[in-house]
Amino acid sequence: RQILSFIGITCLFLLLRWNSFTTPFERDEGEYAYAARLLHHGVMPYEHSFMQKPPMIIYAYLFGQLISENSIVLPRALASLSVFLTIIVTGIIVARGSNNFLGLTVMWALTPMVSFPPLHLFAANTEAFMILPMMLVFLLVLWKKGEAPLLHWFLGGCFGAIACLFKPIAAPVLVFMVFLWQVELWKSTKRFSVLLKHTGIITLGVSLTTLLFLLPFLLHDGGKTLRECVIDYNLLYTSFDEYDYSPILSFLTLFWKQWWFICLLFAWYIIKRPPLWWQYLGLVFISLLTIYRSPIGHYYLVLLPFLAIISVASLDSLFTQLKIGSPRGSVRMKSVVISVLILLLLLPNYDLISKSPNEFIIELYTKHSPFIEAQIAAKKVEEITQPSDKIFIAGSEPEVLYYANRESVSRFVIVYPLMIPTAAAQVYQEEVVQTLQKNLPEVIVYVQSPASWMRHKKTPAIFVPYIDELVKTKYSLVGGTLFDIKQWIDTPNEKEAKRCSMLIYKRLPVEK
């Protein structure tokens, strides 16, 4: 029965994601794929591709490109494998703490939760890769608790470093996990020397792993450009005070509407407070603390394993409270209740399962984003340029660079750092203008979709007026991608151009 249950979980996971593997890249995926291709060809990201994420996501995409350089499927398959292994690890955590039945139950519950459509969890994003090493640390914490050998502590440091090198939002959760581990170690030894020794071992694991993956960038320029993108700019970005409590209130409202039964189980968990209740509530609270200001749904992936564990523990507490008759009747009743809950979790996915890959991405993303058109535009760019020609994306659609296999004339392959009014925005805008003045790109892809720009009232007015004047005076309009019907149109008139999500301009011949 356990084997059949596991097979069922695997089939359900694939059913929920089958049409996401071949959908066009969204802009984050395009950014990672482009950076990985640069590294694949010996060109250093960060220096030639401004990117806010640590390098682990570049390595993940590079691994896929080493197998097949132009594949969309491989990054998605690797990300989905990471998420699926996270489901298994979470099941093992619960099985080890309780029993196999509850372990399988949490796997059944978590499978639809990590494919919840409103959170946009299908892309090969950093969180999809980060979640596995993070949960492996938690598994090591619970495996032998205070009696874990030094090797477990060292591996905990290694996995923790990998998680943070995918996305630093894992750090607060990991620190709390290590704190729980130290508490268990103190209970079993009562010796500060042992505590310091194990803390030193986990620190060694973090340090060696971090050094290993940062080494190429440290050898290249001492890590200067990586530090500017990943540390300096992110500090500026986090100080940009646009978001308040409204994003988390929006997501909590969404959870109540779609997962009201999970919310009720969460409330019952707080009331009953089963063993280790404060640890799991602490993990939920810290997870929310790291993401509460973000309006981006896939950040909430960090929360879902702990929410699933709490829900199943609460359900088990309810079963105990109800004291259902005979053992056989108890198993049947539990199975029926769990089946109903899984079906409720699956309801938001019902409409998506039968959609084609293009219909799938339109439903999730492209009401405001030109991800399908990016492939059409890239094909045209490839036709009208040579492989050695450099182009520029006036917008935040670096997937065009990846599809067209062309290099950007500027390191700013997305314009968000230019538009978000941080202290560096004006400096970055001036840098791009100077770059374009010195080296005009052969083609400019001008993105008209608002979601690709993130304009603000306080955005410096240097770059946009310059690029608008540049395409009028030194470029000719080749054509554009019609947003509503996802098709290419040659030399559109003014009315047709307004319907285009992307316009492609080619540089005029230089007059002799």
Helices and strands in order:
Layout: H1 2-17, H2 27-40, H3 56-67, H4 73-97, H5 100-113, H6 126-143, H7 150-166, H8 170-189, H9 192-221, H10 224-239, H11 246-258, H12 260-272, H13 277-291, H14 304-322, H15 327-346, H16 350-353, H17 357-364, H18 371-384, E1 390-394, H19 399-404, E2 407-408, H20 416-419, H21 425-438, E3 443-447, H22 463-473, E4 475-482, E5 487-490, H23 494-498, E6 500-507
Helix pairs in contact: 1-5, 2-3, 4-5, 4-6, 5-14, 5-15, 6-7, 6-8, 7-9, 8-9, 8-13, 11-12, 12-14, 13-14
Architecture overview:
The protein is 64% helix and 6% strand. The chain contains 23 helices and 6 strands. α2 (27-40) crosses α3, α5 (100-113) packs parallel to α15 and α7 runs parallel beside α9. It starts with a helix and ends in a 5-residue tail after the last strand.
Poorly predicted ranges (pLDDT <50, ≥5 residues)? none
Look at the helices and sheets and give the structural class. Answer: alpha/beta
The separation of the N and C termini measures 80 Å
Number of helices: 23
Oligomer: single chain
